[in-house]
């Protein structure tokens, strides 16, 4: 993959940067580094990279974290474009670091809005559905939010405004835009409504589904139980969109996307520590991430050994203590939980205790084989 050209310099983590890339077919792509909440903490994801794709129609993929619409407009300006030049906005998934400026940008751009069908349910309120969600008063995307109270409160106006938005086109897996330039892939797991966008059969925008040098957090299967009735009818019977197993399934579809290397543009860490983190082949990176999760399953089984051990104890033994401070601990616990859910589904682990937060091995070890079967069956 050729290195994108920096057309506007920013911080060393990529914040405030604009980069330019031209596909072999001559389509211009601009990456815009919009500031993100975790910047300058131990959990610095780096900015959210939003991508402006110029073609017959101008498309913006993602809008960055809420509260940054002016920054976004300035970055657009650096590409020579105004919001009114955007014909359509595609949202990779319903997390606030991706659709945060949508409600501000849509009216000024008059662009069409596209996202996966599930996205409509994620931005809407479903207060009548009380199936164990932590926050049934929040929209579909955040009913299981584990962020601190203060973050949740700050999000309320954003939720309100976002809930009024309507999709102009609902994305289905495999669908192509009428001009043929963009193809959408449904890749649930990190988020139930995650999509990737393939441009000119040549490059792919992966949102948070495939990131360089870090792995995104899988959602928890428990979200499915709390949100089942929030999902569109066709996703209610069995869990196809939440949890590590579904995430691995999505990664596996990306791993076999093309016999040719397809470079990926991720939503985080495209540029970090003053250098590019290029993903020259999305399939290769997707396979690495699957292996990463298999290795983590193995490590967790080893930690459990022949005892009964709490989720928290597993996290303490698995992660370096520096990663277990503040929000880091919540993230780490979620990470362990999603792997334990997978190991439980595969019959290798039993979750015990009132809260199901203690793990014991069953004596079986079939997770690798089950994943293999799951993938072959897909
Ligand atoms: Zn993100």
> Structural class of the secondary elements?
alpha+beta
Mean pLDDT: 94
Helix coverage percent? 25-40%
Count of runs of 4 or more consecutive helical residues: 11
List keywords for this structure.
four-stranded mixed sheet, Metallo-beta-lactamase, Chain A, alpha+beta, 378 residues, Arc Repressor Mutant, subunit A, 2 domains, binds zinc ion
Description:
With 378 residues, the protein is an alpha+beta fold. The protein has two domains: 5-280, Ribonuclease Z/Hydroxyacylglutathione hydrolase-like (Metallo-beta-lactamase, Chain A, 4-Layer Sandwich); 292-376, Arc Repressor Mutant, subunit A. Helix content is 33%, strand content 18%. The protein has eleven helices and 17 strands. It has helices spanning 69-78, 96-99, 102-109, 117-123, 149-163, 221-227, 244-255, 282-304, 311-318, 327-345, 367-376, and strands at 5-8, 18-22, 28-34, 48-53, 59-61, 88-90, 112-116, 169-171, 182-186, 195-199, 203-207, 264-266, 271-272, 275-276, 308-310, 349-352, 358-361. The strands form four sheets. An eight-stranded mixed β-sheet has the order 1-2-3-4-5-6-7-8. The chain has a four-stranded mixed β-sheet with strand order 9-10-11-12, with no helix packed on it. Helix 8 packs across helix 10 (327-345). The longest helix is centred in the C-terminal third of the chain and has 23 residues, at 282-304. The protein binds zinc ion (ZN). Zinc ion binds next to helix 2.
């Amino acid at each position: 993959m050729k290195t994108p050209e920096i057309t506007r310099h920013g911080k060393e983590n990529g914040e405030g940067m604009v980069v330019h890339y031209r596909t072999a077919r001559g389509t211009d792509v601009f990456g815009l580094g919009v500031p993100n909440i975790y910047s300058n903490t131990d959990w610095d994801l780096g900015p959210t990279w939003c991508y402006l794709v110029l073609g017959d129609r101008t498309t913006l993929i993602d809008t960055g974290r809420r509260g940054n619409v002016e920054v976004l407009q300035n970055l657009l300006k650096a590409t020579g474009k105004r919001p009114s030049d955007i014909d359509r906005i595609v949202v990779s998934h319903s997390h606030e670091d991706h659709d945060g400026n949508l409600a501000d940008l849509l009216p000024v751009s008059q662009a069409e809005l596209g996202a996966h069908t599930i996205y409509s349910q994620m931005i809407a309120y479903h207060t009548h559905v009380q199936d164990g969600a932590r926050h049934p008063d929040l929209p579909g995307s955040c009913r299981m939010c584990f962020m601190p109270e203060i973050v949740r409160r700050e999000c309320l106006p954003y939720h309100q405004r976002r809930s009024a938005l309507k999709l102009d086109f609902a994305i289905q897996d495999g669908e192509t835009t009428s001009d043929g330039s963009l193809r959408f892939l449904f890749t649930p797991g990190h988020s139930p409504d995650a999509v990737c966008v393939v441009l000119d059969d040549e490059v792919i925008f992966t949102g948070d589904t495939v990131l360089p040098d870090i792995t995104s957090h899988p959602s928890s299967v428990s979200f499915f139980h709390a949100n089942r009735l929030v999902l569109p009818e066709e996703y209610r019977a069995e869990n196809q969109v939440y949890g590590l197993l579904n995430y691995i399934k999505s990664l596996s579809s990306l791993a076999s996307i093309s016999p040719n290397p397809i470079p990926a543009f991720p939503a985080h860490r495209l540029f970090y520590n003053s250098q590019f983190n290029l993903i020259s082949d999305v399939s290769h990176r997707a396979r690495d991430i699957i292996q990463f999760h298999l290795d983590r399953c193995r490590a967790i089984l080893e930690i459990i050994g022949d005892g009964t051990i709490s989720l928290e104890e597993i996290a303490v033994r698995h992660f370096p203590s520096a990663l277990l401070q503040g929000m880091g601990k919540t993230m780490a616990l979620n990470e362990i939980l999603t792997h334990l859910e997978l190991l439980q589904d595969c019959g290798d682990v039993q979750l015990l205790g009132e809260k199901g937060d203690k793990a014991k091995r069953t004596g079986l070890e079939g997770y690798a084989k089950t994943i293999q079967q799951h993938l072959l069956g897909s």
